[in-house]
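Chapter summary example.
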Amino acid sequence: MRLRVRINKRELLAAGLLCLLGLASVLKVSASAVGKVAGVGSGLLPAALGAVLLVAGILWLFASRLSPDEEDDEYIGASIWRGVCGTASGLFLFLLLGKYVALPAAVFALVFVTVLGDHRHSAVSAGALASAATFLALPLMPLLQHFLLLT
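The structure predicted for these 151 residues follows.
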């Protein structure tokens, strides 16, 4: 009796890309003079985020349970492009506003535009979520400015 395993290629590639990105960031920080294990420095945040990405990719791979492929003929539609454009423009606004305006405005714009990329949200719900995220991020603003070197 042979066991046949069918793997969902999309989830496998996405989880592998996430693992690769996390591993690359951890290796880049550990190879530089900034991120050393002996002391906490400015390489701590990129190394920690890389480790979180690596673990998330591994968990995603196991959570998919190697499910078989969906129908390739499915029409994805414009909703995927709305999400991609919302995420990309949210990150661009975060970098732009964080550098030239203020970090709270950058966080608000990041969350607002990224949430608007989801077709299930309206401008009111995106504004409420962005306001809550900005309010929760306010105590972390000095730490974020230090790590992002925006000052």
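To summarize the output: The chain has a mean pLDDT of 77.
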